[in-house]
Amino acid sequence: xxxxxxxxxxxxxxxxxxxxxxxxxxxxxxxxxxxxxxxxxxxxxxxxxxxxxxxxxxxxxxxxxxxxxxxxxxxxxxxxxxxxxxxxxxxxxxxxxxxxxxxxxxxxxxxxxxxxxxxxxxxxxxxxxxxxxxxxxxxxxxxxxxxxxxxxxxxxxxxxxxxxxxxxxxxxxxxxxxxxxxxxxxxxxxxxxxxxxxxxxxxxxxxxxxxxxxxxxxxxxxxxxxxxxxxxxxxxxxxxxxxxxxxxxxxxxxxxxxxxxxxxxxxxxxxxxxxxxxxxxxxxxxxxxxxxxxxxxxxxxxxxxxxxxxxxxxxxxxxxxxxxxxxxxxxxxxxxxxxxxxxxxxxxxxxxxxxxxxxxxxxxxxxxxxxxxxxxxxxxxxxxxxxxxxxxxxxxxxxxxxxxxxxxxxxxxxxxxxxxxxxxx
Length: 425
Description:
The chain is of the alpha/beta class. It has 3 domains: about 1-95, Tetrapyrrole methylase, N-terminal domain (Cobalt-precorrin-4 Transmethylase, domain 1), CATH 3.40.1010; about 100-215, Methyltransferase, Cobalt-precorrin-4 Transmethylase, Domain 2; about 240-425, Vaccinia Virus protein VP39 (Rossmann fold, 3-Layer(aba) Sandwich), CATH 3.40.50.150. About 30% of the residues lie in helices and about 25% in strands. A hairpin with a 7-residue loop joins strand 8 (about 175-180) and strand 9 (about 190). Helix 6 crosses helix 7 (about 145-155) and helix 12 runs parallel beside helix 13.
């Protein structure tokens, strides 16, 4: 039997170690534990050698104890051990997870929090989750601590080319709670801004970073833990958004565009030529972090109003693409609306930077060949449709006619599956 002990916010109980012939754990766990004098010790570093030693002892029936932080079944070593030895070989004694302890220190519930691990993983998923959700716990690791998270979360306006007239997105209203050495005598829980976090040397004792929108950290009671469920509706009616003179992506077009964009938690989506921001808002409702780019000043105001009305965060860039895209983080997916002469250049810029897909909506037939060439020229697999729909409209006499909407070309380009799988991992 392999006993996996979560140390919680203190040392492992002595009874867990009685009779152990092999004790495996981080150096600080081993130093704090009452390890039997005759037991073999293995300091966790690379997992593979430690697993081989565990297997050797396990095969001969030795008592093995693995010490871990907090709840080892929560983004912890239980997953690796269960894969190698089977769940039936494990006796798990969880402690208090660092996430639970950190939220407890600041007096907040965490059943509605998003928890993301950045330990040994791409930091961008955690950054985008922090941009999209008001309450996120980030499990940190080497190269993915508070400083890196704060630097990635902040404004990228410093990357703007000289002379560019554009309002880069201001950082969202977030505060970091950095919890270090939880349960130890030198425990620290510090409230800092992302900018303050970015310029400090935090060392290696950080357990977890909470990223909070202080105005929205306490919501109504929940039935299901974790992030809010996906919305029950999408491709919302045009009347659910502020817009000017019906200048809005119609819901039929939005429905297919959303299917091709595939926005989800951890993604970053650009809405370029956002207009009313209907696509941006819908992507944000589905969990993605979103940047909306709009050149009209009144459009910027409408985007912000629509985002606020639907309870989502959308960062807005006031400027003209493609120049206004400089300095923004590379997106997973991009939606492009409009059809001016600069459209092929905008599509080319977006297609070169998009990690997964680009969707373009346009009314002009003349733009289709150039847009298609721009998508394929950037290495995307291109497809598209002409969307023509007729809606039910009432007539006098309690009868109904079909009212045609303006036809729209929707083209999309997608990275090949091998690339997409690599990004997802």
